[in-house]
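pinging the channel bc i need a second pair of eyes. not urgent but kinda urgent?? the chain im working w is below, pasted from the shared doc
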Amino acid sequence: METKCSQILNQASQVLLGKEEEIRLALASLFAGGHLLIEDVPGVGKTTLVYLLSRLLGMELNRIQFTNDLLPGDILGTMIYRKESEDFTFKKGPIFGQMILADELNRATPKTQSALLQVMEERKVTVEGQEFPLEYPFLIVGTQNPFFQVGTFQLPESQLDRFFMSLHLDFPSREYEKKILQQRETRSLIEELEPILNASELSEIRDQIHNIHVSDKLLDYLLDLLEFGRSDFEEGAYLSPRASKDLVLGAKSLAFIEDRDHVVPEDVQKIAPYILGHRIGGGKGVLYGQGLIKNMIAKVKVPL
């Protein structure tokens, strides 16, 4: 698995140039089975990253383009009356897939955004009192534009808390942007790639991640970070117990990618801004929240 993980990182970095760290973090989220939120201006490679990782991880990708006229039924599916049998059957929506690209998620109305709350938490859909489970694996990768752009709606805190991790891609350096200009069309490069993992191997990776050791001292350090955030930040109330569980799992996933069987303080420090930042960033954006968390890390003492 370590070899295949390295292959994914290497091949992805050759397509999405200059974003090795973002690719590594995105893999940590997806390996852990967590939903991922990517915030940035259009054109910096958000959807390219999603297409690239779905290809390498061997996951079927369904893309849902969120707009202000999209309805919950367009995502989840609807009950259809069958005249022949004189009853209703459920027609599945595009949410029934393995990796779901919720593109420009914050361009949809709050009513439509709320259609994702149950599937993100319980991985099932309820329509007309009937429950329909989603297959394994199931992951949502949402992209959103900054809130200062026209036609955006703020995501509610309950939905932000369901995203395991958030990323901000930013512009490439001048050196890498020149290489991008010289590179072939990105989508054709992705289509030439062969899947490196399959569903059973993803399941095996998640089992290995859950078995990675975290010491009691490190758990106390993690709790110190959360206590500091909850007491010192106005937005700290949104650092829920789910956030603390995600932080432990994210640190384990990063340790797995680094080929270690235990978590070290650096794992927690490195991944905490991306696990917690969107939860306290709110309407001020992912980067604002990540900055707060980085300041918090600098002030909390690391256990010996």
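so The chain has a mean pLDDT of 90. and The chain is about 50% helix and 15% strand. — does that match what u expected or am i reading it wrong
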